Amino acid sequence: MGFEVELPPDEEFDDIMREHLIEPEFQPVVSLVDQRPVGYEAFARGPEGRLRTPAALFEAAAEAGRSAEFDELCATAATEAFREAAMPGLALFVNLNPDTLTNETDGVAPAYAELMADNNVVIEITEKAVTRRPAGLLDAVGDARRKTARIALDDIGVDPASLAAMPLINPDVIKLDRSIIQSTSPDSHVVNAVLDDARRRGAQIVAEGVERPEHVDVARSLGATYAQGWLFGRPGPLPRDIRPSDQPLARVGPRPVARATPYDVLALIEPVDRTSASQLQAMLAGIEEQAARATGPAILVVNIGDLRFLAPDSPITYAFLTSRGIEVFLIGHGVPFSPGGRVRGIPLAADDPLREERTTLLVGTHYGSGVFARQRRHPTGDATFDAGTCHEWDRVVEATLPLVSRVKNEPID
C-alpha cells in the first residue's frame, strides 16, 4: 500500500516565480573559422543563494510541479534581454524543456512562439524529450521550423538514445557533449555516427566544453565547425560591442511526417509478394535479429496489429534490446502505454487501419531495414499477406515517423 507525501512549499522558489526574479545570462557560440560569435545560448540565473544555478532552479521547479511555468518565464526573460540588446544577425540558442509540451498542446509553448516571432532562434532539445514525448516533440519541432527556428540536438554522446534520435529530429545543429571534447579517447562510434549524419543532411556540429586551446584542435578533428566553452566566454550579460562571424548557420529542410501507413509508404517503392503468416513471421523476426546484432543505438518499431498476436518470447527479446540501447516501440490494439520495462506502447483503436498491417522497422544512425505487410483474406478464412522488405534508410525513416508520432498522452513523471 502506498502513501502520498505532501512536500512543504518552497517559499524561496515561489518568491522567484511571483517576482520574476530570473536573470538571463548568455554564452557565445563561435565559428572555428574566425572565432567570432554566430549566436548566444541563454541560461537562467536566480538570486544569490541556493537557487542561483540553473540546475538548482530547474530541480526546484520540478519538485514544485511548475516546470512548464518556469520554462516559459525563462524564455520570456531571454527574449526581452535579447531584444533590448539589439543583436541583428546573431542567433539566440534556447533550450526546449519537454515538460512544456502538455497533452493538449501540439506545438511550441506561447513564450517560445513569441521568441521566434522576430528573432533568429535555435531551439535546443535533448534525447530525453525524444524518448519521453516523441509525438509532442515532433509537433513542436515542426511548429518551430514553420516559425523559422532552427533545431539543435543537444548533449550528443551522453546517452545512446541521442544518436538514435537524430534521424527523427533531422537537426540543423548537432551539439557534441563536453565529455566527448574533453576525453583523451573520444568514442569513435559516436563521432563517426555524428559525422555521417552531418554529411548526409548538411547539419553543422558544435563542440561544447571548449576550455583550452587544445580543445579547439580536438573539436576540429571531430568535424566541428562551431564551438562553445569558457575559452570563448563564460555565461554573463550580452556584450555591447560584437563583431559577428561571417559564417552562416546551416538550415536543414524539415522531414515531413507522412499521413499514410508504413505499407502505403513502402509499397510504392518496393515489390510485394503474397506471403503466408509463417513466412511473414520469419521475415519480421529477421529484422529483430538485426537489431540484436546492432553495434550502436537504434530505434525498433514493431506493429503486431493486435496484442493477441504478441509472441510469448517477444517481451524478453524487447527487454534485451532496450538493455543494449535500442529504443523499442510496440504497436497494436490492446497494447498498453507501458508494455514492460523501457518498451513504449502505442495502442490502436479498434477501427485503425494499422490493425490490418504487420510492420517491423529498424532505424540506426546510418542504416535502416524494414518488413511491411498488409493482410488479405482467403475465402477459407486463412490469413495471408502482401509483404515486402526495404533497406533504404531514408524510406525506412519516412515509414517510422508516422508511427512514433502516435505516442501521445504519456503522463510526465
TrEMBL record:
Molecular function in Gene Ontology? cyclic-guanylate-specific phosphodiesterase activity
InterPro entries, alphabetized: Cyclic-di-GMP_PDE-like, EAL_dom, EAL_sf
- Cite the EAL domain residue spans from the record: 6-249
Q: Which residues cross the membrane?
A: none
Q: In its UniProt entry, what is this protein called?
A: EAL domain-containing protein (Putative c-di-GMP-specific phosphodiesterase class I)
Organism name = Asanoa ferruginea
Q: Taxonomically, what lineage is the organism?
A: Bacteria, Bacillati, Actinomycetota, Actinomycetes, Micromonosporales
